[in-house]
Amino acid sequence: MSVPMESPVTFSNVSQAKWWRRGIFATQTGYVTIALILLVVVMNFASPYFLTEGNIQNMAKNFSFIAIATLGITFVIITGGIDLSVGSMMCFAAMVTSMVMTELSTPGAAGGAWFVHLATDGKTVLANVPGLILLISVLAGLLAALIVGLINGFCVAVLGLSSFVTTLGMLSIVRGLAYVVSNGRGSFPGGPDADYFYALTSGDLYGLPAPFIYLMILALVMAVVLHHSRFGRHVFALGGNENAAEQTGISVTRVKIAVYVISALAAGLQGIIISGWLGSAPANMATSYELNVIAAAVIGGANLAGGIGGPLGAIVGCVLLEVIRNGLVLAQVNSYWQQTLVGVIIIAAVLVDRVRSKLS
Amino acid sequence: MTPAAVEQPQSAPLLELKGIGKEFGAIRALHDVDMKIYPGEVVGLMGDNGAGKSTLVKIIAGNFRPSHGEMVFGGDAVHFHRPVDARAVGIEVVYQDLALADNLTAAANVYLGRELTRKVGPFSLLDHKAMAARSLELFGELRSETLPYNLVKQMSGGQRQAVAIARTRLSNARLVMMDEPTAAISVRQVEQVLSLIHRLKEQGIAVMLISHRMPDVFAVSDRVVVMRRGEKRADKPIRDTSPEEVTALITGAKEAA
């Protein structure tokens, strides 16, 4: 009747997983990175312009324009959710920032007197520290994003609505608000601080585009948060098994709200940076960017089912999209092919991952 | 229940239920259940679906509050409002789904929700090394060759159980309730799980094994409790009963023993 407990059970099937089944090599991010390197090599032979300094700078700038938002949405995707409102969020935050900047820089407007006054020769003069207007306007834009992120998080985490539906609604709500507040015209950064704004958003530092520098800093912070903080661990746990997270006492609600706030803030910051490069925040800015952002995240290895993703994958996904776009232009392929190719790559990346996990 | 029939170990009971009852509206899920569990004792809790096993477990684990009766744990009367309250005194449940996050490592799962951190400047970062080292120790105590840095999704059913049980060891649980730990795993892995239960017993931990699998209950339990229609129908040392008798009690062919 009883099982002989004294005989030690042997575990011949247990060993540390082989190196190629562990860490980066076992992930979609790993082989997409390899594919990217191969693509860069091929492009280098295909076009002498591809690896010139100018083109590299150009590409670095371009992929940085969606990569910060991709970092943010990766948090949401790891928990198993989705945020479709990032495109609208970019526009809205940029618009709030430039409107606040213009408003604060207008003598006689509400609050304007605090920051500027008219000199005797009729010119607008700063009445305060240079950069203060810029700081307040950027914070205002991020605050708008924060509020929208909180609402997204509240609907998903507290009310239990599906993230797809909630953020689809928010996509429309926020875009609508952007049209309403600007009367459909969009807005322009203006006033004495506008030059700082342009310098900080589309300027260079030692030849590196400013957005690229922000991206690198944020990606490093994200890597540390995801892999070395309790919050990051809980984000992964939530995506792996939400029940388990709940049963082990993790505050699922708090973590969920936090990821939507992070996604909205990243999108907001991204939008503000883009508007500096564009020189304006038109009401149709970043329309359908959410699709590029999600595509980049998915190509880079974030799993929409939750539990997998990271900053490296997000960036690799964005770089791959940009290299393809750029490569097609240099190869003088009709640029209309780009979308088609991107679609093929999304499916191919996920398909290869599927085949690989079947094989192992 | 006939207390004389139950072999009384020397120590005081770890958990004592007195007249526990539970009604959901007009439905009486549990009726007047008395039960004692001693430290280091393995009790098999058996019964058909709807017999009241899971209601009883949920009351002990703090998921439900009993409608009647009282619970004494470690000598003190206890009233649990939430599962956290039960966990705080040392009652842990290993759920059938094990509550493991497949995408994380064994060590991460053991420490899920209780991660160790160390200060690096103003930040507290995860202390991966300390968590892995302690997890390895716990797996060693359980004599399971589970490796802390392996992903749970690559593990066998037995190893997954070891991870879930190691988690209860971490919190110094005094009573571990296991919900169908041997359902849906291979014969070889069942052996591993049963040996894990023995390891817990060796360390003086009381185990309540909720199972449908007669051979498993008879292999590891000291005592078997049979529930039927919300009532306790039997509570006997395992050597004074037989699978045939327990089956009869579960199905109602025999009313009480």
Entry keywords:
heterodimer; A: 360 residues; mainly alpha; two-stranded antiparallel sheet; 14 helices; 67% helix; 3% strand; B: 257 residues; alpha/beta; Rossmann fold; 2 domains; six-stranded mixed beta sheet; four-stranded antiparallel beta sheet; 12 strands; 28% strand; disordered N terminus
Describe how the helices and strands are arranged:
The complex is a heterodimer of chains A (360) and B (257).
Chain A: H1 28-46, H2 53-78, H3 86-104, H4 112-115, E1 116-118, E2 124-126, H5 132-158, H6 163-182, H7 194-202, E3 204-205, E4 208-209, H8 210-228, H9 230-240, H10 242-247, H11 252-278, H12 289-299, H13 311-330, H14 337-359
Antiparallel strand pairs in A: 1-2, 3-4
Helix pairs in contact in A: 1-13, 2-8, 2-11, 2-12, 2-13, 3-5, 3-6, 3-11, 5-6, 5-11, 7-11, 8-9, 9-11, 12-13, 12-14, 13-14
Chain B: E1 15-24, E2 27-37, E3 42-47, H1 53-60, E4 68-73, E5 76-78, H2 83-89, E6 91-94, H3 106-110, E7 117-120, E8 123-126, H4 128-141, H5 157-170, E9 175-179, H6 187-202, E10 206-210, H7 214-220, E11 223-228, E12 231-237, H8 243-251
Parallel strand pairs in B: 3-10, 3-11, 6-9, 9-10
Antiparallel strand pairs in B: 1-2, 1-4, 4-5, 7-8, 11-12
Helix pairs in contact in B: 5-6
Q: What features would you describe in this structure?
A:
The complex is a heterodimer of chains A (360) and B (257). With 360 residues, chain A is mainly alpha-helical. Helices cover 67% and strands 3% of the residues of chain A. Chain A is built from 14 helices and four strands. Chain A has helices spanning 28-46, 53-78, 86-104, 112-115, 132-158, 163-182, 194-202, 210-228, 230-240, 242-247, 252-278, 289-299, 311-330, 337-359; strands at 116-118, 124-126, 204-205, 208-209. Chain A has a two-stranded antiparallel sheet with strand order 1-2. By secondary structure, chain B is an alpha/beta fold. Chain B has two domains: 3-90 and 174-251, 3-Layer(aba) Sandwich (Rossmann fold), CATH 3.40.50.300; 105-172, no CATH class. Chain B is built from eight helices and twelve strands. The model of chain B is unreliable at 1-7 (pLDDT under 50). The interface between A and B is large, with 34 and 46 residues.
